[in-house]
Amino acid sequence: MFTLLIVVIVIALLFDLVNGFHDAANSIATVVSTKVLTPFQAVIWAAFFNVLAFWVFDMSVGNTVAKTVDNTAIDLWVILAGLLAATAWNLLTWRLGIPSSSSHTLIGGFAGAAVTHVAIAKGSLWAGFGVIAGKQILVVILFIFLAPIIGGLISYLITVVTIARNFWYKMLVIIALSAITMFGMVYMIEFLDIKPIMMYILGGMILIFILVYTYHYLLYRNRPSSMREAGMHKKLQLLSSAAFSLGHGGADSQKVMGIICAALLVYGNQARKEGKEDQIGKQFTVTELVEVKYHNSDGKLAKFKPECATLDTAIYFKVEKEIIDPQGNRIFDNKGHLVANAGVPHHSLKSINDSLHQLEVYLNGKNLHDAHNRAVIFYGERLNRNYIYAGVFNSVVDQKDRLLSGYKIETKVHSETMPFWIAFGCYLMIGLGTLMGGWKIVKTMGSKITKVTPLEGVCAETAGALTLFTVSNFGIPVSTTHTITGSIIGVGATRRLSAVRWGVTINLLWAWILTIPVSGALAALIYAIIYFL
């Protein structure tokens, strides 16, 4: 089984490499077609920012991909078949110069193999489809259409504002849109746990745009020149293409990270069934963090993330920013003030905070286990009162120790609960793949859809980056191909709708729609061949 795991990991990394040169054109199409950079310069530029995404993005999309199917109901052969199918479809579409989605290829292959595995095991196709996370698949399918629409609308809006001749009107609109964007980033940091560095990157990018436009206006307002303006937009396109490459690296690498994590989770589950859990090396161990989702009194979605600490023999919990003990006594309030009664012994706030950790868990069927001591935390939705940290869940269970109505337990892989090599390897491979390039697809993306000027290149890439940054942080695995195509269509439509070559666009749309079912069918066939051989 360990040999099969290694094979799956190697093929997953090779898929990431293929993904890099298959999707290289997404990052460089506009910057090459506007002659800002040569193809060689462009792929180096894009590859650098693909790898840089390692320090910017978390695992939101990776978790969605890993949970596409029930990991407790599949085996490593399922993941192998899905990867082989996805790689085959990627290579075929790359060979034909069709900018299809590597994301949807991967999800389609994973789901198709899983359905076949369960259908064969249980003798029921309906049971096979039951292993799929239907809601997540539907969201992915929905964004086949929404991603290019969102990218197109944003690029259309950015282009219309950018070409406005009244400078002060332009600045007013840009500042207003920037404020809305930054407000959205603050919301995502608070509720979606994204890294604050992303807000700083976006804020810095917006500031550079405003300063460059202001400098150019003040310096050349009395002697405007289309050549100088084009030169300014060529310089800005370096920034916009870097942002899009950053989004591409973050969004697409996470999908392969999700598959590798799914493989390690399946490997761990199988080892537990065989009583060989102690034989799993640390570098092949993946755990998950647990959280409880619910709607608060205001009707807003909220998350409870249990945090616990053990100091000497004392146990502490952090609930709604307050430190409490297992008996429910408040030790420190949410402002860090000591509120414990004189007779309640306690440690210092600093020592407690330093020892606090989120619960690392794994699923065994419907039961939730502590990854460190293997104790059962929840039997389905019923809390195990004998669990050492059971008291931390008091606020989310009723008197019978059952999860409150409307509350839902979720688990997810985090960058801190998986080996370092997974993330670094995936980002490195997609960067190397981008260096290998994809010249066939550059031609389609950069000129066949619509002719792109430097100004329009800036607008399309900025819109694509904003779309990827936002949607990826919601955990939705969108296609970078679809996103940049929609953005290019959006800028083309600002001239006139006939500037967009809709015949090419319709052909691309058919390729996108067919990707998931074709990949799924191919994976089903490959798994059936593996099974019966």
Task: Provide structural commentary.
The structure is a single chain. The protein has 533 residues and is an alpha+beta fold. Helix content is 61%, strand content 10%. The protein has helices at 2-33, 39-52, 60-66, 76-96, 102-122, 125-129, 134-162, 167-191, 196-220, 226-273, 349-355, 420-436, 439-448, 454-473, 480-493, 502-532, and strands spanning 288-295, 301-304, 307-311, 314-319, 322-324, 330-332, 357-358, 360-364, 367-370, 376-379, 382-383, 408-412. Strands 1, 2, 8, 9, 10, 11 and 12 form a seven-stranded antiparallel β-sheet that branches. A five-stranded antiparallel β-sheet has the order 6-5-4-3-7, covered by helices on one side. β1 and β2 form a beta hairpin. α1 runs parallel beside α15. The longest helix is centred in the middle third of the chain and has 48 residues, at 226-273. The protein starts with a helix and ends with a helix.
